[in-house]
Amino acid sequence: MNDAMIDALYKQAKEWVYEAGAMIKDSFSRKLDITYKSHQADLVTNMDKNIEKFFATLIHEHYPDHKIIGEEGYGDEVKKMDGTLWIIDPIDGTTNFVHQQSNFAISIGIFVDGVGVIAFIYDVARDELFHCVKGQGIYLNDQKLPSLRTNVLAESVVAINGTWLTPNPKIDHQSLIPIVRKSRGTRSYGTAALELAYVACGRIDAYITMRLSPWDFAAGYILIGEAGGTISTVSGESVNLLEKNSIFASKKGLHEEILSIIYEGAKSE
Ligand code: IPD
Ligand code: CA
Ligand code: CA
Ligand code: CA
């Protein structure tokens, strides 16, 4: 895909993102149909499904050779990153959407042959669109944002999901305690997409979580790379875009500092 085709795809996708955002805003005054999936804390609403269906229908109609991975099942069976792939989370932060009508986002990453080329994370309630086209820098609405600088943990705000600080099967929870202690503060927004967007735009310095699906991190992965940050698994390995991963995104420098704390914790296990 050449640059002109990528720009055209970006413009089209952006229009759809705003349309989807308007559909979500409209739904605020109507009663949601809420059910749960695997357990009581795993909510899904009619809007999660409607929005994913909206994108899947348009993409299949306009770009029949493009593939889709989506949380709610309207996408395709995708086993490799060949061709053009849209990775979509129609509503990231469904619990916040249901409980707060805020702190949730539409998250879309578009990859061509495995390379992230376009990303959108749209905070519908605040009308903040974090977006980028590879090589052109990242934007918040119409404002171009500066590249990320390095930082030290003592001056950093770190987003972390509180559940990982309790005994859990994914990580020795004690190894996370020094990160919390040494940082300037911790936050937990309940939406991986916005937490990644906030790292990309510098509102927070790092985000650490133990298990996300491709639709949770795909757009953030592209934004962080474009912003000059680092994104890896919690053990410092490359992220596999087709599988569940732990995710650790941060500014450079800080990434090494936090990884060394995690390695120390792992050694003393
Ligand atoms: C969830 C949110 C949350 C993260 C969960 C995700 P959903 O996505 O990103 O912050 O901790 O692991 O499943 O289900 O609201 O799209
Ligand atoms: Ca979900
Ligand atoms: Ca999600
Ligand atoms: Ca979701």
Automatic annotation (TrEMBL):
Keywords assigned: Hydrolase, Magnesium, Metal-binding
Source organism, top-level taxon: Bacteria
Residues annotated to bind Mg(2+): 71, 89, 91-92, 216
GO biological process: inositol metabolic process; phosphatidylinositol phosphate biosynthetic process; signal transduction
CDD domains cross-referenced by the UniProt entry: IMPase_like (cd01637)
Pfam families in the cross-refs: Inositol_P (PF00459)
Catalysed reactions listed for this entry: a myo-inositol phosphate + H2O = myo-inositol + phosphate
Protein name: inositol-phosphate phosphatase
Lineage: Bacteria, Bacillati, Bacillota, Bacilli, Bacillales
